[in-house]
Amino acid sequence: MTTEQQSHLRRATAKDSPIVYWQLANLWQERYDVADRPMDGNMDPFFFVTKTKNFIPHEYPCRTEFKKSFSGRRPQPTAEFDAVRWWLPFASPRVDLSGFWFRPTRVGCWARTFLDARSVGPATLRLSTCGGAILFVNGREQGFMAPYQRNLEAQQLFEIELAAGLNEIRVYFDDLAERDARFYFQLDYVEGPEVEAAVPVPIAAGDADALEVILEGMRFDRTAYLGEDVTILFPVPLPVALSCHVEIEGDFMSIERFDYDFELEAGATKLELGTSADMPADFRHFRITFKTGELSLGRTLGVEICHPQRQGEAPAALEDRVAEALAEVAAHSEPDTVCAFARLAQGQGGEETEAMISAMLPVIEDCHDCADFVLVPLLFAYTRWSDLLSPELRDRIEHAVLNYRYWMDEPGNDVQWYFSENHALLFHTAAYLGGRLFPDAVFVRSGRTGAEQMQVGEQRVRAWLDHFERWEMAEWNSVPYFPIDLKGLTALAACAPDETIRDRASASIVRLMEIVARSAHHGMLTGSQGRSYEHTLRPGRSVELSAIARLLWGRGWYGRRVHALPQLAVCIRDHGLRFPEALAAIAAHQSDDAQEWTFSQGENRFAALYHYKTRDTALGTIAHYRPGAWGYQETVLHLRLGDRPEAQIWINHPGETIQFGYGRPSFWGGCGTLPRVHQYRDLAILDFEIHEGQPDFTHAWFPLEAFDDTVVDGNLALARSGNGIAMLIGNGALEPVKQGPTTDIELRLAGRKGRWIVRLSDVGREGSLDGMQARFATLSARRDDEGALIVVDPDYGRVVFEEDGTVRAEGRILRPTDWSVRGDAVHLKIPGRQPRRAAS
């Protein structure tokens, strides 16, 4: 069948807009190795404070060599085009195949579409990509671009000639993928004859249209699954019978995938996947593919799964919670070295435990990125329980340890991330403990004996602790990185031969958990974060900090992906680690007053953090943090209501419009443009001025299902969970999303200049949402001649938010520049709150 005879998906394509419908070939991938060599550099606590958009400047030797060989040269396609799947935009202007590659890998892909031109004539196309690309029109090559600057977009204009009727457009794009890789292209139709995109489809065009409507509009029937059946709802009935393949995956470091296949009849209005009680816990991506004949169309959705019914209430005694945590990880976590650690801690050696370790050794042997996450619990376990392992496995472990690359000054050709503080801690801990295990052996990459490697590791561990004790976390309050720091620190607290290091590591663990307790609401961390992902923001229960809170304070649940929990449990059980009893009450604030917690994090105190909580609400922000700059993965405002973990709200500017993508920042994780942020007690303001070329809206995570009562009316949104109430006020209409994956969980504020005012209170003071609205609906901010934002609040009176972050209210002056790393927690009386009566 010729192209003219086929059915086509046809979409109007306006001038100066992207061409967004394509056919794709298979993704080509090939490992890219260069000669081993050392690198220069050190831990960089500011690597994400980007100056050029969100470009990270550190370059590996593989990129240097790749650019020498390929930059500025025509890319070489690896195969001919063969359509295997169809790309639908789902609001994204790009064909985006971004992902995570643990070794340097060359990637390439063909894409094809057609432009149906009403008349012959010249046209201008604009091609954007981070890697290389070749443009073909009607079989003739129009040119190429090959900047190959890692994750930094470049653009090029192409002048082409269009014939009347169908014109074939092909793009071959390629790059070197290192860790998180932005692998995409965007082709904009800038100028030319009137055209529409016309993509061939091997089914009736109307049926293809309906399938797109279904994929674009489908959604889970719940925001999170806590044992219920998992159902995906379709907005319209299926037009044809088809097969459906579903892959359930975890975060980018997860080693597991679960596959399901379904046959769906024409007219189906939902996809029923079974009970969530039988599915793996954590925030999970569901990669859904419809296939009918040769047509393959897909979309990714994401949702949290947790198993609170099976887990039940936490035991009352710490000793019992320690045992529970080890048993849970041993039986229900991913089969990796952390799970093996938990099994060995319970005396469970044997074939199953050894299989877990054996499966992970290639990650260490090949120096995959994040291999340090795998290696440290293995070294901890080997130090304590090597007698439970077979001689054959001990030999394999020794070989892996001796051949690993422990720092960038040792030769290698990997893309391990040496620059962030959490990775640096693990590298140095591994060198220290690994050298101790094999003092007389030669560590291949460094050429040092184990004793010498241990000494170098010890020096670096001490320097890391020096830095931490002075400045603490560069990636402040980060839900995913508390466990990574704890992974290294617990290994040191238990296994370091030097008593001083053990003591310092133990003190650092206690300090980290104090930060969590101060910033937590009923055990769940709530506040601004220096590094966030959608898979760590959206889950209310299954993130590892929830399990750690359960272990320490009896509040929380278990997920499946675990980094530090069993090591922390063993330190408590076997190594004398203890926490102040007061932290439990701080983490679950129940008193009649409020806690105001101000502190700074990072070198030179560059992150000034404000947190305010009552027993009913919690709100945390970062003060005066790079307003107007390109962001990375920073969450600047986060709040919770009541005691249900899912009842949370955050506000951000999306870094990309594709949902469940790999951008840093992504749709929910981080900010494309950072806003001006201010907070005083339970009042906050976010002022966005969005850069050109970025998405032209801001939005709030606002999950209706998690709240007991809600109102969305014009520029107001109110929510209640338990006794906690939140009000959001926009400088324009707050539009609830009613179609697609974020139906009933997203509020959007259109425009490049978006202002959000956030105000919290409680039922005891306001009575209801109506009472809250009556008191606070007219809140607004005016800017004075010196750039200050002034709000007149019913409780706090005149609140002045100065441009440098200083706050003046109630006769107080709060200056973020004064906030210390240790921090200050002040207890304040809540205006209008009557003391809660004790139960009789």
Question: Could you explain how this protein is built, in words?
Answer:
The protein is an alpha+beta fold. The chain is built from 18 helices and 46 strands. Strands 1, 3, 4, 5, 7, 9, 10, 12 and 14 form a nine-stranded antiparallel β-sheet that branches. Strand 18 (242-249) and strand 19 (257-264) form a beta hairpin. Helix 4 runs antiparallel to helix 14. The radius of gyration is 27 Å and the shape is globular.
Quick synopsis:
By secondary structure, the protein is α+β, with helices and mostly antiparallel strands. Helices cover 25% and strands 32% of the residues. The strands form nine sheets. Strands 1, 3, 4, 5, 7, 9, 10, 12 and 14 form a nine-stranded antiparallel β-sheet that branches.
Put simply, the count of helices is 18
Low-confidence stretches: none
Given the helix and strand composition, which structural class is it?
A: alpha+beta
DSSP strand (E) fraction? 25-35%
Give me the count of strands: 46
User: Per the principal axes of the C-alpha atoms, what is the gross shape?
Assistant: globular
Q: Describe the biggest sheet?
A: 9 strands, antiparallel
Question: How large, in whole angstroms, is the Cα Rg?
Answer: 27 Å
Q: What is the distance, rounded to the nearest whole angstrom, between the alpha carbons of the first and last residues? A: 83 Å
The percent of residues in helical segments reads 25-40%
Q: Return the average pLDDT rounded to an integer.
A: 96
